Amino acid sequence: MSDSCRTRPTPAAWLDGMTNQTSLRDRALAFHALHVPGRPLVLPNAWDTASARVVEDAGAAAVATTSAGLAWALGAADGERVERERALGVVADIVAAVGVPVSADIESGYAEDPAGVAATVRAVLAVGAVGVNIEDALYGEGAGPLRAVAAQAERIAAAREAADAEGVPLFVNARIDTFLRGAGDVDVTLERAAAFRAAGADGIFVPGAVDPGTVKLLVDGIDGPLNVMVGPGAPPVADLAALGVARVSAGSGIAQAALALVHRAARELLGAGTYESLEGGLDYARLNELLGAAR
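Structure (tokenized):
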């Protein structure tokens, strides 16, 4: 792996005037530069073109997809149940619609083996995304909730090598589900993180870890930027920043909240016959303007 692909650039004016005509390499460098411990990149995850445009309009410096929200929008359950081509078709639409860097949640790689993960990464780059999340959870195969460390490291290495071969410093965010699945403590997480970093991961994502003491142990023990997933009950972004977190994301939380509103509004309309749940909706003309301005 070349040093130029692994060195984090200075967060200068990479994002000034960013357009879809900017080279993929420059967009990837811009995305890397946003990961600053103590000044985290905040990602309200999107799942389709409309949500991505709304998130960008709200001021997000980048757009990251949520695989769960994307799957639900396509009428499927989360957990490796959407085909790679279908999922990346949505990512392609999002990339075309926004002017900021896009990172794709590719679950565990949409593939059974490292070669397949490499093919997924090449497809991600082909649609213009410059980051990926790769998780270590197992879905319906093998024993235990997580892949063996060595097997997952091979998948991450394959992703890294595929991106480097294309000359793009893709940001590989290695997700570790020890806390989310009750499959390990801080020590186990740090062990996996070290192996995944050595395999080529740029950042480490540990969903389910929000306790300040735990987060601090992870920040101090991981040689690289830490991504924390937030939701109700999690510390504010400012508190996570003070702990040294470099990336904060909402995961499927915003998609869940949006669908909860659909459910509440539908029940109210069908039951009481009233419409109070619809208060505070985005303006029709504004939404038309946002989607009409999609790049």
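The radius of gyration is 19 Å. Residues 1-21 have pLDDT under 50 and may be disordered.
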